[in-house]
Design goal:
Strand content: 5-15%
Helix content: 40-55%
Protein name: Type II toxin-antitoxin system VapC family toxin
Structural class: alpha/beta
Radius of gyration: 15 Å
Number of strands: 5
Organism: Cryptosporangium phraense
Order of helices and strands: EHHEHHEHHEHE
Number of domains: 1
CATH superfamily: 5'-nuclease
Largest sheet: 5 strands, parallel
CATH class: Alpha Beta
CATH architecture: 3-Layer(aba) Sandwich
Strand order of the largest sheet: 3-2-1-4-5
Length: 146
Amino acid sequence: MTTTRAPSQVGLVFDHHPLTAYATSKDLIAPSLVASILERQQFIAVSPLVLAEAYCSLDPEEADVLDLLTSGALAAAIVVEPFDGETARLLGRDSAPTLTAGGGHRPTLATLHTAQLAVRHAAGVVTGEPAPLRKLLGPDWPVLEV
């Protein structure tokens, strides 16, 4: 289900790393964050791009665990934000070339969309690769590494 929530209702933005960690039971950080969000009656925003990345890296049993979080018993915690034509244009045409003008690697669309969601919701980001998001969001943006 794709639903846009009010900014104050989104407490965190996940990229594919915490989703994968949750599904593989890699550690207890991701499940603890999900529980905390549910207790505060907030949501975790995710890009459909990072959701697809997470599913691509999982075996069928792990994908079943992620299904619980995205469409099953715990789905109340997750909101999959839309990635529509307007978003594609903003990220692909306007943002990405500006961000790479000084040289270096161009951020992935998933990373760009995750950063955009963090800004839109004024929410911290949970990731396994903080460097690209810190470059996009600035050093003072709350980024938690899993």
